[in-house]
Design brief:
- It is a single chain.
- About 10% of the residues lie in helices and about 45% in strands.
- The chain starts with a strand and ends with a strand.
- By secondary structure, the protein is mainly beta.
- It has one domain.
- The mean pLDDT is about 90.
């Protein structure tokens, strides 16, 4: 298996149906009280991409991607059009030693929060800020666009403090959720297919 750093066609993903999924086990007592246990620490997104293939050309492109990825075998990039940007997202405070910082996005409501690791940033869109001042890529920092790991040229120092934030766009690493092609020829030049992609851990 491999991971292909190409993004699934945006014109097809635009019409996809789905989003983030979590897994929770709920144990209910005889009195109706619940104990909720979090089974997954991280989310796993799932999208039905066949909804976005509305033309014969798009369906042919979808079939091409399915064959090239060999069904579920290979991973690739996917844009979740409802959630693909970050703005002023915190990634760390300087301690004068650490130079590596992982891109993350944090979702917070009152005291509850969820931290999502960003492993597939989009080249040409990423900005890194130190105490709100934009830093120069290639001079002050570099980024592994296949993992989302930022490396600072000089370790930021906590005195101040020096806070690192980022902004930009990102993709989701996914694979197809089936090895089987079940395309229905509904009418001439009109076909349908129930095909999903699922997020993979990187």
């Amino acid at each position: 298996m491999a991971f292909v750093e190409a993004r699934f066609p945006d014109d097809i993903s635009w019409g996809s149906v789905g989003g983030s999924q979590f897994r929770t086990t709920i144990v209910e007592s005889a009195g109706g009280y619940e104990q909720r246990n979090i089974d997954w620490e991280g989310r796993r997104g799932k999208w039905n991409v066949a909804h976005g293939a509305k033309t014969a050309v798009q369906m042919d492109r979808l079939i091409e991607w399915f064959h090239a990825m060999r069904g579920r075998a290979h991973g690739f990039r996917f844009r979740d059009h409802r959630d693909y940007t970050a703005e002023s997202e915190w990634i760390g405070d300087g301690d004068g030693v650490e130079t590596d910082f992982q891109l993350i996005k944090t979702y917070t409501i009152e005291t509850e929060s969820y931290v999502h690791t960003i492993s597939k940033p989009v080249d040409g869109t990423i900005k890194i800020y130190l105490d709100g001042v934009e830093q120069d890529e290639g001079v002050d920092w570099t980024l592994d666009y296949t993992t989302g790991l930022v490396t600072m040229a000089v370790a930021p120092l906590l005195a101040g403090p020096e806070v690192l934030t980022w902004a930009g766009e990102y993709d989701v690493p996914v694979r197809f959720d089936s090895d089987e092609m079940n395309v229905s020829d509904d009418f001439e030049d009109v076909a349908s297919w129930d095909l999903s992609v699922v997020e993979i851990r990187i």
